[in-house]
Amino acid sequence: AQSVSQHNHHVILSEAASLELGCNYSYGGTVNLFWYVQYPGQHLQLLLKYFSGDPLVKGIKGFEAEFIKSKFSFNLRKPSVQWSDTAEYFCAVNAPGGYQKVTFGIGTKLQVIP
Amino acid sequence: EAGVAQSPRYKIIEKRQSVAFWCNPISGHATLYWYQQILGQGPKLLIQFQNNGVVDDSQLPKDRFSAERLKGVDSTLKIQPAKLEDSAVYLCASSTYRGQGNSYEQYFGPGTRLTVT
Question: How far away is chain B from the Cα of A18, in angstroms, using its nearest Cα?
């Protein structure tokens, strides 16, 4: 069975600081990887996704993530955070094939201080 | 396009009462999901429908939870009787289906926040 670990549950950064949120998954085969974001009072929405190809994936609002297969990791990065990035971030994984059940991590709450 | 609709947005009930949630997915999305998100945790899949058939309900507490998706469009999730530990946000999501082995993304509704007292 697949699983996802997010190492940082609560991160506090000042504006303009760089961000890296860790995500490791457990699954032996090919995977699809996602980062979802939930801004305060809003729906959970897709930030970026990796299905295949270039392991460096760029998403909305200047976010990117790198898939490192050897480390089973899919860390989320942003070079300079803004106050508006304050949100909860979820890493998720599914295995292609079948009906593609998605497994979510526990989430990381990011607070950006102006 | 219109997003995933859910109602009600908030519900407070006493333990042992029953409650029902409704979800209307994005038009044309064949796959519908119900998730439970307990405070401090990530969403946990309860049940997944492909059109009006269930393809995964392995984590649905079937002694008290039930769900249906008549006509393959909107869906209801019911809890009867509710327990204190059912307090959570219930999320509905939908996605297109491009055949087994193909990849997709899910679109989430706003969720229903259930408080059981």
Answer: 24
For residues A105 and B83, what is the distance between their CA atoms, to the nearest angstrom?
25
Residues with Cβ within 8 Å of A3's Cβ and at least 6 positions away in sequence, in order, are A25, A26, A27, A103
Find the mean pLDDT for residues A30-46. Answer: 91
Q: Any bridge partners for residue A112, and if so which?
A: A13
State pLDDT tens for residues A51-96.
888 999 999 999 999 999 999 999 999 999 999 999 999 999 987 6
The chain A residues in contact with chain B (CB within 8 A) are: 4, 32, 34, 36, 42-46, 49, 51, 90, 92, 96-107
| Alpha carbon distance A94, B103 (integer Å) | 9
